[in-house]
Design goal:
The chain is mainly alpha-helical. It is built from 23 helices and 2 strands. The N and C termini lie far apart (99 Å).
Amino acid sequence: MNKNQPATIILPEPEEPIRAELFSLERLEQHAESLAAAQIVTNEASRGRPLIPRVVDNGRVLLDSYRAIAHAIQEEHAITPAAEWLVDNFHIVDEQLREIQDDLPVGYYRKLPKLASGHLEGYPRVFGVAWAFVAHTDSRFDPEALRRFVAAYQRVQPLTIGELWAVAIALRVVLVENLRRMADRMVRSRAARHEADALADSLLGSGEQSAILPVLQRFEKAPLERAFAVQLVQRLRDLDPKVRPALLWLDQRLVAAGTSADDIVRAEQQQHGAMSVSVRNIITSMRSISAFDWQEFFESVSLVDEILRNDTHFADMDFATRDKYRHAIEDLSRGSSHSEMEVAKRVVRRVKQAIPDPGEGPHNGNEPNQDRRMEPGYYLISRGRPAFERELGFHVSWKRWLLRSYIRAAVPGYLATIAIVTAMMLALPLLHARGGGMTVKGLLLLGLLAAVPASDLAIALINRVVMGLLGPRRLPRMELRNGIPEDLRTIVVMPTLLTTAGEVAEHIERLEVHYLANPDGDLRFALLSDWLDAPCETLPGDDDLLAVAVDGVARL
């Protein structure tokens, strides 16, 4: 075989892009409802198909495609607009791949409900939701369209809290998957065009027409790639008449496939245009997703939030507190037979039961927890949780029971743990010394000397373990977006002693600083002052110091 003749390249068939009929907003909502009715979730969510290996493979393919296109640019070969979009914005793609792996830990992924059937069987349900949204929007991220799509889906089948938080991750995964499929087609088309160029060069340099057919025979059984055929048509058309047998051969192959040269050229141009739009949408969507406020989106579509906002003070809390309540609802749902929405409704019912009847007047002051019971956090993260767990039939694992018992033991449990760990640390060296023949007095002396460093080490170990198990605990906090309202009027009192005029001026200045730093809402500041201890009721200069303080506050 002539070494200058091109070798036939057969590439694996690329997967179809994630692209379907483009829907309007109304049609998109209808599709979301039908999708929710059709999707069935398996009862064994932990036995799903792993997603990260596919994401890693997508990253590898995209990197290889980027390098291949970059190499073509270095060789001064023409590239398509879609390929140019990929090369110019690959840093955005790389960022998405890192965020997917950071935001989708194994434990979180395992808890997501998985689909029981369909082409995405075993993958998270929210992945299927994102897939449908991307397919029918041509990978264009529109926050309002996504909000309406998710809301329509939940009118038929509610999504869990974890699934709603995973919407952003799922969109990233699907967009990366779609871009990988586009990149596969770019590389395949590039290879086909390169092969067509090599064949055209070989045909044009063959010299005689009789030498053309033997070259073409090697392509008889190979599938005819459209990119290959288009490139060959464009290279050979209107050139040397001696290559006419090649054009006739190509026309015969196209007729056998039910098409023509003009048709495939037109179809290839349309595909390049569609792919350019899709890749541009993917890159733009990736950028928009990274900048979007997903906290606001989550709370706008969460059905649990809607339940809690309507009948409790849930909306008055800050985001961290609201998120803590949501985590508690997730936990209670997983440990019982109730859905998250059912848990939220039961919390609201408890809150309503704690609100006193207006006709009964003020509630009994002998019940210090009465006001707390009118707040959902009392049942989710505070003293009302044990009774609420019993109402739900919540199963407490032995690990959680052990940890709660340790927390209830408080100081005695902490000190007992230190003593036990210290004794365990001392036991081995003392037994070793005993085996070596040390006397009882020597063992006692050794134990006393080693007790202090052993206890220090035990305290350090226990503190690390306890902090790892419990972590920091944030107190529930109100958001107060517009400052402190009138019904929560607050005064901040700063205790101080009137010692010298200079000290009094400093205290007044500090009072002004606190006031200026907190200008919003019904918040007041005051000095709670007194004089120094003295053998008598008043001392010379007391009235002068008081006058300085009064005048200073009056000037404010």
